[in-house]
Amino acid sequence: MLPYVKISEEAVRGHLDSATVDVVSASLRSAAPGIGDLLNLISPAAEDLLPEMRRAAAVLKKKHFGKTIKLYTPLYISNYCVNQCRYCGFNAGSESERKRLSIDETTAEAEVIRGYGIDSLLLVSGEDPSHVTVDFLVETTNRLRGMFSYLAVEIAPLDKNGYERLFEAGIDGLTLYQETYDRKTYEELHPAGPKADYDKRLEHIVDGGEAGFRTLGIGALLGLYDWRIEAFSLAAHALWLRKRFWRSKIQFSFPRITSIDGDFQPPRSISTVELERMALAFRIVFPESEISISTRETREFRDSIALTAASTVSAASSVVPGGYLDAERRELGQFSLNDTRGVERVRADLSALGLDVVTKDWDALFAVA
Ligand code: SF4
After folding, report:
1. Does any ligand 1 atom lie closer than 6 A to the CB of residue 81?
2. Quick one: which of 35, 44, 88, 120 could link to 72 by a disulfide (CB 3.0–4.6 Å)?
3. Which atom, in ligand 1's list, is nearest to the CA of 82?
């Protein structure tokens, strides 16, 4: 059974295989599409309706986000990690160069990013429990809170108390990917370390919801398992979280495995057009949710998906600790970057497409009762 839905993968595959162009068209016209419509929209039958999907998604994106597209930048604190994810260059067994930033160094990197005009920061770290502690993150947040209007974390899972402390310190969003929702694949790819526990990984985002984070970011690392099954599980997970944590926004990301992930060959790769269809389907079924596309993807893909599905894109990213102050380190990170444009170039390119590029869409004052 897939998590959060009492449906077998076999039944999902049956639905996908039996969808027709007519049911896909009906899903595109639906006033309140649900998870069955999502399946129709990612089914093989939808392949010929890509232009119609683009149009429908663009209308919904405009309705909920206007012409805006928000920029954010990730800041890597540490690439030490106790886990052994087979697909990641930061895994404990890898010989990649390691670096941890102190609070002063993290603040100095953040100042560079602030200098780009960025106002939303994502703090990222490998699972490095001896250095990136809750106290470290609280102190870092205290330093950064006045510099950025939106702060989020993508770090090792914490317990509810840890998340509550971060939320009270001023962290607005939590990103925690399940990586793959397929239990067998998960167990094969996470052989050791705290992350080896599939169920605990699923539960931690619940702790984050209970702590009150304004945004809950979820996703699957695409390429590990059949993208259509991952899409269905991700949607089911989102519906469950949305019902329970209705005050929080759900943010979807669709990261694809890139070449730096060592010798690892993605067992179930997903093409660019399939990725686009997945993003369009999520925009249509979750019109109010955030969709974020990172610099793993090319500028062409990112610019085009910003018109139809994405509400948030990263810019000027370095995926290595210290990469903003030391430009030579910038691209030696957790994954390879396919869009290395600076903030001004991203801003100019998106503006030329008629989009309003925003760096700020939140202020802590909004949270005052
Ligand atoms: S994916 Fe995350 S948890 Fe896994 S090895 Fe890489 S940094 Fe560590």
Report:
1. yes
2. 120
3. 8
- Domain 50-367 has what CATH class? alpha beta
Residue with tokens 């102050």: 325
**Cα distance between residue 173 and residue 158, in whole Å:** 14
Distance 293 CA to ligand 1 centre (A): 19
Q: Which of 127, 131, 258, 264 to probe ligand 1 with, by most ligand atoms within 8 A of CB?
A: 127
CA of 50 to the centre of ligand 1 (A): 34
Q: Are 249 and 282 in contact (CB under 8 A)?
A: no
The answer to whether the beta carbons of residues 124 and 89 sit under 8 Å apart is: no
Closest atom of ligand 1 to 89 CA is 6
CA dihedral 123, 129, 135, 140 (to 10 degrees): -20
What whole-number percentage of the chain has pLDDT above 90? Answer: 86
Rounded-to-integer distance, Cα 163 and Cα 209, Å: 9
d(CA 1, ligand 1 centre) in Å? 26
With a 6 Å cutoff on the Cβ, whether 83 touches ligand 1 is yes
Task: Return the SS3 of 223.
Answer: coil
What is the pLDDT confidence band of residue 366, given thresholds at 50, 70 and 90?
A: confident
Phi, psi of 339 (to 5 degrees): -135, 105
Spacing, Cα 195 to ligand 1 middle (Å):
8
Residue range 37-93, pLDDT digits in tens: 999 999 999 999 999 999 999 999 999 999 999 999 999 999 999 999 999 888 998
Question: What's the confidence (pLDDT) of residue 4?
Answer: 77
Tell which phi-psi region holds residue 140, choosing left (phi > 0), alpha (psi between -120 and 50) or beta: alpha
Instruction: Please report the pLDDT score of residue 1 as a whole number.
Output: 65
List the residue whose alpha carbon is closest to atom 1 of ligand 1: 88
pTM score, whole prediction: 0.95
CB of 304 closer than 8 Å to CB of 265: no
